[in-house]
Design brief:
The chain is of the alpha+beta class. The protein has two domains: 34-207, D-amino Acid Aminotransferase, Chain A, domain 1 (2-Layer Sandwich); 211-336, OB fold (Dihydrolipoamide Acetyltransferase, E2P), CATH 2.40.50. It has six helices and 19 strands. Strands 3, 4, 5, 6, 7, 8 and 9 form a seven-stranded mixed sheet that branches. Strands 12, 13, 14, 15, 16 and 19 form a six-stranded antiparallel sheet that branches. A four-stranded mixed sheet has the order 1-11-10-2, with helices on one face. It is elongated. The relative contact order is 0.15.
Length: 337
C-alpha cells in the first residue's frame, strides 16, 4: 500500500489535473456540454501500479498519508495500472463536512488513523486518465472517458469510491447550481463532451452560486504594519440572540480606509461578538495576525458570498455596500440557511 520511490505509475506523479476558468453563468452555446456538480473537497489524482497507490493534490503534494483508508481501498482493488481524477470528501451524518476533511491534515499519524476509522473518506470519481490495464484515455473525448469512469466505479464495488453525477441537461445543471453553496457542492462545472483531457489547462468552466447577506460588523483587524483597517469581521445573530462570528471581508477601497478606520475606532471597546468569537490565524482566514479589535455591533454591511460550511462563510466575502437602513438585530442566520 505504501508507495515505493522506484514504482513506475501509468503517468508521472507530477501530472497536473485539468482545471477550470470561472464564469458568471453556465455555458449554453459552443457545446455539446456535460455538467457536473463542483464538489467542495480536496481535488485529487489517484495513481495505481500493481498494489502501489499514490494520491496527489492539485498542488502536486502527496495526500496518501492523510487518507490511509483510501490508500487501502484502492490497493485492494482487483484493477491495476490506472489513474483517476476526483475529489476527496468526508461525510458526517450523510452530509459532506469540510471541517472534518481539514482535520485530516494533522501531524500525528495516530490521530489520522483514528479519524479514518471514525469518519472514513470517499473519492468521488468524475474522470479517468488511464483505464485499468494501463489503457491511456487522455486523448479520447469526454463522452468515452465518462463511460470508462462509470464502468470503473461499478467494477470497484467499494464504498470508498463513488461516481459523480453528470448531465447534459441545462435545466438539471441549473437546479444543481441553485442548490449549491450549503453542502457537498459549491457550484457546477461544464466540460466539452467531445474534448480530450488537457492536464494543467483551464479547459473547463466553473460557475458558483453567489448570494448576499446583511452582516453586523463585530470587529476589525488592522493592516499589517499600518494603523488602518485591513478587514471587517462579520457576525450574525444566532437563535439564542448572541452574535456569532461568521467570516470576514477585506475588499475595502484604499481611498476609504482612513475614514472607515476613524469610524471603527470610535466604536472600539464594545462587546463585539457575544457568541462564537474569532480566534487566531486559521484555515478560515488569510489574516497574518490573530489580533482583532471588538466594536459595538452597530454597523451593518451587505456582502456577497459563495459557500457556507459549519455556519461560517467558507471564503472571504465581497463588500457590496453599507446598510444604515438595517437594524443589526435583523442580521440572523436565516439569511444563509
Amino acid at each position: 500500500m505504501v508507495t515505493a520511490p522506484d514504482v513506475e505509475f501509468p503517468l508521472p506523479l507530477n501530472t497536473q489535473p485539468m482545471e477550470a476558468r470561472t464564469a458568471e453563468a453556465l455555458p449554453r452555446e459552443d457545446g455539446p456540454w456535460q455538467y457536473e456538480p463542483k464538489w467542495d473537497g480536496f481535488r485529487c489524482l489517484a495513481f495505481k501500479s500493481g498494489k502501489a497507490v499514490d494520491l496527489r493534490a492539485k498542488s502536486g503534494k502527496p495526500l496518501g498519508r492523510y487518507f490511509p483508508e483510501l490508500m487501502a481501498a484502492l490497493s485492494g482493488l482487483a484493477a491495476t495500472e490506472f489513474v483517476v481524477d476526483g475529489e476527496i470528501i468526508v461525510e458526517i451524518e450523510g452530509r459532506a463536512s469540510f471541517d472534518a476533511l481539514q482535520m485530516r491534515l494533522h501531524p500525528a499519524e495516530s490521530r489520522i488513523r483514528k479519524l479514518s476509522r471514525e469518519t472514513p473518506a470517499q473519492l468521488v470519481v468524475f474522470d479517468i486518465l488511464v483505464a485499468p490495464g494501463d489503457r491511456p484515455l487522455i486523448q479520447l473525448p469526454l463522452h468515452d472517458r465518462r463511460a470508462e469512469a462509470e464502468d470503473f466505479v461499478v467494477q470497484a464495488t467499494t464504498k470508498a469510491l463513488r461516481l459523480s453525477p453528470a448531465t447534459t441537461s441545462l435545466a438539471t445543471a441549473d437546479k444543481w447550481l441553485k442548490g449549491a453553496g450549503t453542502g457537498a457542492t459549491d457550484g457546477v462545472v461544464a466540460k466539452l463532451l467531445n474534448a480530450p483531457y488537457r492536464p494543467g489547462e483551464r479547459a473547463m468552466i466553473k460557475v458558483k452560486r453567489l448570494r448576499t447577506a446583511d452582516c453586523v460588523v463585530g470587529g476589525f483587524r488592522y493592516l499589517n504594519g499600518r494603523r488602518q483597517v485591513g478587514s471587517l469581521l462579520l457576525g450574525l445573530y444566532n437563535g439564542s440572540g448572541l452574535l456569532d462570528h461568521v467570516g470576514f471581508t477585506s475588499t475595502i477601497a484604499n481611498g476609504e480606509r482612513a475614514v472607515l478606520t476613524e469610524k471603527l475606532e470610535q466604536l472600539r471597546g464594545g462587546s463585539g461578538f457575544t457568541g462564537k468569537a474569532p480566534g487566531g490565524p486559521s484555515r478560515w482566514s488569510t489574516e497574518r495576525s490573530g489580533e482583532w479589535e471588538p466594536v459595538r455591533p452597530e454597523l451593518v454591511v451587505e456582502v456577497r458570498f459563495d459557500h457556507v460550511t459549519g455556519d461560517r462563510f467558507r471564503h472571504g466575502t465581497k463588500l457590496l455596500r453599507w446598510r444604515p437602513d438595517k437594524a443589526p438585530r435583523q442580521c440572523t442566520f436565516e439569511q444563509i440557511a
